[in-house]
Write a structure and sequence with these properties.
Blueprint: H1 7-19, H2 25-36, H3 39-63, H4 67-73, H5 76-95, H6 110-121, H7 126-139, H8 151-180, H9 185-211
Helix pairs in contact: 1-8, 2-3, 2-6, 2-8, 2-9, 3-6, 3-7, 3-8, 5-9
Length: about 210
Amino acid sequence: MAIPMENYLLIPLSIGFAGSLTFGPVNLCVVDTTVRHNLQAGLWFAIAAALVEGAQSFLALAFGEYYPVFLRQHPWIHLVVLAFFVVLGVVFLQRSKSSDSQEPAQPRGGRYFTQGLVIAAMNPQGIPFWILVLTYLQSVQWFEINAQTPLWGISLFLVGVVVGKFGALSLFSLLSNTINRRTAFLQQWTDKITGGVLIALGILQGFQYFLT
């Protein structure tokens, strides 16, 4: 069965966009970065997170069958993620006590781009998500990616993932920037909410470690 070329772009773009609308640490950090700094800072963070999502989808594509085995052999990875998110959550909670709820943004976006790379890379949910997506898409024959897939097909798939992710995160950034200009409530509570969620996600990783 011939797979339409546009499927390689539009399907991962749609799934990447929809999957990124769900509640998660990257979304919250995009909102927090936008609220504390400005829209440009939030978009730099979103670009970095989208590129990481593309890398994670490539890992799912290339090494998906080995990923569960790798986690079983190295369960300590859950503890690393636990420590990272708990520490990051505490940083956000401590920052919320500052009298200045909005800090001046740096003239360049490198700081926020780096933050986006680190936080997105430490959120490992993208790899199993894309493993499940790829398994389903190939089972229904919407498209098939394997060793025989031409480079253009893989390239379109990765571009679709990155664009879909960035589209969703930029939407979060735009909305939070709009709301932030109209109310001080978001400025006062964004760090507390983000910090609490990050700590909860870290604890969840700890449960996964002790239950494996």
